[in-house]
Design a protein that fits this description.
Largest sheet: 8 strands, parallel, barrel
Keywords: Transferase
Domain DAHP synthetase I/KDSA: 100-356
Distance between the termini: 31 Å
Order of helices and strands: EHEEHEEEEHEHEHEHEHEHEHHEEH
Helix content: 25-40%
Number of helices: 11
InterPro entries: Aldolase_TIM, Class-I_DAHP_synthase, DAHP1/KDSA, DAHP_snth_FXD
Shape: globular
Number of strands: 15
GO molecular function: transferase activity
Structural class: alpha/beta
Domain DAHP synthase ferredoxin-like: 1-73
Low-confidence stretches: none
Strand order of the largest sheet: 7-8-9-10-11-12-13-14
Length: 370
């Protein structure tokens, strides 16, 4: 059961202590108190973990200061919507991330040179984009492939981000000590930008890493669905992050591994955008670069990456994680799927038009009362 307190109730309020006193009659239950600071309100939630069938929902809701009590059936209790909970969202570096917001994280799969990183940031600034993707740590299938520049690039990368007004960089971490390296580099450079920690698909069930990013509260987390996991398994993995205290999570769909997706690299799973938004309170991101794996064009002249981006955006995606490179042919990581940097203005115009269409269709359905 999740008990939602009224907006004015805090952990110091007499109503909150009255509730705890009432719950003392159920000593077998573990009580977890969560304070979610959302975009529109701070929500105080009291989670009853264990066999709560003997706790009367009606009695709980009659207590002073209680807004509602919700019976939980899904295992992902913290990130779940449970049919009635509203989207909370979060604010980071003055940017709102919620199921109504929209952001584009464009950039390098793996940072390879200073010059290429600067070219990306410069192009983003010129096109009014303040978010980027930049990989310093890159897991590869072969141990002999380029693994990223690691912590050595972080100081100058963050300095460049500040120079070009980039507010937030999405950056994958492979180990808990990478979080410390990012924090140290930000301290060294005076925090010119923010970082969202990415959990890549290869670490989707690395539970110790999930718990580590959940324990720290400095950085939000972008969790990528495991390419071989069911949606249920991935949602429960994201719950590992929330269970440690960090609920500032973005859930990212990036395609699933199956030969049924050939000739694409993975089978696109962007039809799950509305599913994740219905099941959870998390913003949903799409990564169109990885499931396609190339820059091929359809007979209409539009690249497949553009087409599937549109599929995700028209389904209500709240963010896009997409790869660009100044010279994809020379990229040290995933060059075949990176879009040429000169296409950034076209891609953005294409995406914004699709987003406008989604908002128009959303309003149409609402106005018709469907």
């Amino acid at each position: 059961m999740i008990i939602i307190m009224e907006p004015h109730v805090t952990q110091e309020s007499p109503e909150f202590h009255s509730l705890l006193k009432y719950l003392e009659r159920f000593p077998h239950l573990h009580i977890k108190v969560i304070e979610n600071k959302g975009v529109t309100r701070t929500l105080l939630e009291v989670h009853l973990i264990g066999e709560d069938y003997m706790v009367s929902q009606e009695d709980i809701e009659s207590l002073p200061g209680v807004e509602k009590a919700i019976k939980v059936t899904a295992k992902y209790r913290l990130i779940g919507r449970h049919g009635v909970l509203t989207d909370l969202g979060f604010t980071y570096k003055d940017l709102k991330f919620s199921q109504d917001s929209f952001h584009i994280f464009a950039g390098l799969c793996a940072v390879d040179t200073y010059e290429n990183a600067e070219a990306i940031f410069k192009a983003l600034k010129e096109n009014g984009v303040c978010c980027a993707r930049m990989g310093a740590y890159k897991p590869r299938t072969s141990p002999y492939d380029f693994q990223g520049l690691g912590k050595e690039c972080l100081p100058w990368l963050f300095d460049l981000a500040g120079k070009y007004g980039i507010k937030v960089i999405v950056m994958e971490v492979l180990s808990p000590h990478h979080i410390d390296e990012i924090r140290e580099a930000l301290d060294l450079t005076g925090h010119p930008c923010g970082v969202i920690l990415q959990i890549g698909t290869r670490n989707a069930q690395n539970f110790e890493l999930l718990k580590a990013v959940g324990r720290q509260l400095d950085f939000p987390v972008l969790y990528k669905r495991g390419y071989g996991l069911s949606l249920e398994e991935s949602l429960n993995a994201a719950e590992y992050i929330a269970s440690e205290g960090n609920t500032n999570i973005i859930f990212c769909l990036r395609g699933v591994r199956t030969h049924l997706g050939d000739p694409h690299r993975n089978l696109v799973d962007f039809s799950h955008v509305p599913v994740v938004k219905r099941l959870t309170r998390l913003p949903v991101c799409i990564d169109p670069s990885h499931p396609i794996g190339s820059r091929v064009k359809a007979p209409d002249g539009i690249r497949d990456i553009y087409h599937i981006t549109a599929q995700g955006v028209i389904a209500g995606a709240n963010a896009i994680l997409v790869e660009f490179h100044p010279c994809p042919e020379k990229a040290l990581c995933d060059g075949p799927q990176a879009l040429p940097l000169e296409e950034l203005p076209l891609y953005l115009e294409y995406v914004y038009k699709v987003r406008e269409t989604y908002l128009e269709l959303k309003k149409l359905v609402k106005d018709k009362g469907v």
